[in-house]
Amino acid sequence: MIVVSLVEVACFVYYVVVLNSKGCVVDATNGVSLWSPMIYNPHRRYEAWRFLTYVVIHVGYIHLIVNLVFQLFLGIPLEMVHGWWRILLIYGCGSITGSLAHSVADSHSYLAGASGGAYAIASAHIANVIMNWQEMQVDWLKAKPIRFLLSAPVRLAFILLIGGTDTGVAIYNKYMSSSMDHANVGIAAHLGGMATGLLLGIPVLKNIDKKPWETVLFYISLIIYIIMVAFAVIWNAVWPATGQPMHFPKADWTSLVNSTLIPHQCAVPHA
Predict the structure, then answer these.
(1) Among residues 32, 114, 187, 223, which one has the fewest Cβ atoms lying within 10 Å of its Cβ?
(2) Spatial separation of the C-alpha atoms in residues 189 and 195, rounded to whole Å
(3) How far apart are CA 28 and CA 18, in angstroms?
(4) Helical packing angle, 212-238 and 115-131, nearest 10°
């Protein structure tokens, strides 16, 4: 997660420099490169890499900081137990599934930010608790305070509190806030990432003592995840994008790197 976070910071700094050079100020909640080949563009879904690379684009530095703190605080402890490649797999799949969910639920909107991957990491903690509940419960009430804090009930309560609070705030900002900045929150990307962490975390993360019912759950969760992703992929393949690209020619984003930005290129819906 540290390497991924550094890449996101580097990309943010690069686009801050580019945007500032063109008169678009990046502040706490605004400033993004709509012409970037990285951002998810609903009119250019045929450029498949955008379903993943949008995670390195952020809308303002608060957006970046919140996602970095979220994914590092929750991701590094999982990496220490389950290995970096398992967490990277969940993070990457959560990011892709988040953008796929956004493409289905909000087909007109751009998307930027790492919330899909960050939410996948958060819900992977729940998958970890489900598969290792009994092992996390050994003498948890009699052991030292650190053992109590790492027990399954405490972990589950903490993740539900953090995730539930953040999701509730995001939903409120999306549908009840009068601020246009808040209205641009990509709820579907959050939910897609959350579903990925739970469904993919069960078969991917380590299971200390695999029981028969856990094997059944392994296959059920994997099948549900595959069906969910397959539906979104097929939908994107057969459902045409509506509307016209707002800011650049249909198939030439490279020509805009040196072009002059217009004011509304500095804001975009984000996850």
Answers:
(1) 223
(2) 10
(3) 17
(4) 160
- pLDDT tens digits, residue range 101-126? 999 998 888 999 999 999 999 999 99
CB under 8 A, 24+ apart: contacts of 1-7 = 1/71, 1/72, 1/75, 1/76, 1/79, 1/84, 1/87, 1/88, 1/91, 1/121, 2/72, 2/76, 4/71, 4/88, 4/91, 4/117, 5/68, 5/71, 5/72, 7/56
Residues above pLDDT 70, as percent of the chain: 79
pTM, rounded to two decimals: 0.85
Q: Contact at 8 Å (CB) between 270 and 174?
A: no
Conformational region of residue 64, where left means phi above 0, alpha means psi within -120 to 50, and beta covers everything else: alpha
For 185-211, what is each residue's pLDDT tens digit? 788 999 999 999 999 999 999 998 888
Tell how far CA 154 is from the center of its chain.
24
Catalytic center residues: 115, 190
CB 95 within 8 A of CB 120: yes
Tell me how many degrees the CA angle 111-226-123 measures, rounded to the nearest 5. 60
Provide the β-strand partners of residue 270: 185
C-alpha span between 226 and 29 (Å, rounded): 35
Reported as a pLDDT band with limits 50, 70 and 90, residue 251 is: very low
